[in-house]
């Protein structure tokens, strides 16, 4: 894919993400974040495919490993935050 097109998609995604976060009330940031972390599973699958692909060469493998690490951190962190948020709603005591 053309580099200019990829850069355009990146800028558009960043702009839309900024607009979405600024319009959502702060009470909904955590559920929105946990939902977006679940979407990072798609990134994990794509990274695994990039690592497996030998056509991209060493650069593709390095980028795939980096994407896999960052997406995994995002998914695990999202589940940890969601678990902590759900613990806040449980009744304390008995």
From TrEMBL:
Pfam families: PNTB_4TM. One of its GO terms (biological process) is NADPH regeneration. Its EC number is 7.1.1.1. It is an enzyme of class 7 (translocase). GO terms for molecular function: NADP binding; proton-translocating NAD(P)+ transhydrogenase activity. It is found in: Cell inner membrane. GO terms for cellular component: plasma membrane. Its main location: membrane. It is a multi-pass membrane protein. The chain crosses the membrane at residues 32-51, 58-81. It catalyses: NAD(+) + NADPH + H(+)(in) = NADH + NADP(+) + H(+)(out). InterPro entries: NADP_transhyd_a_C (IPR024605). Keywords: Cell inner membrane, Cell membrane, Membrane, NAD, NADP, Translocase, Transmembrane, Transmembrane helix. Residues 7-91 form the NAD(P) transhydrogenase alpha subunit C-terminal domain. The transhydrogenation between NADH and NADP is coupled to respiration and ATP hydrolysis and functions as a proton pump across the membrane. This is proton-translocating NAD(P)(+) transhydrogenase. It comes from Pelagicoccus enzymogenes.
């Amino acid at each position: 894919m053309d580099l200019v097109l990829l850069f355009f998609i990146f800028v558009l995604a960043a702009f839309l993400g900024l607009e979405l976060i600024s319009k959502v009330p702060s009470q909904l940031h955590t559920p929105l974040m946990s939902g977006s972390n679940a979407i990072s599973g798609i990134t994990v699958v794509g990274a695994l495919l990039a690592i497996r692909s030998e056509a991209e060469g060493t650069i593709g493998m390095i980028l795939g490993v980096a994407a896999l690490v960052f997406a995994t951190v995002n998914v695990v962190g999202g589940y940890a935050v969601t678990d902590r948020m759900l613990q806040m709603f449980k009744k304390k005591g008995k």
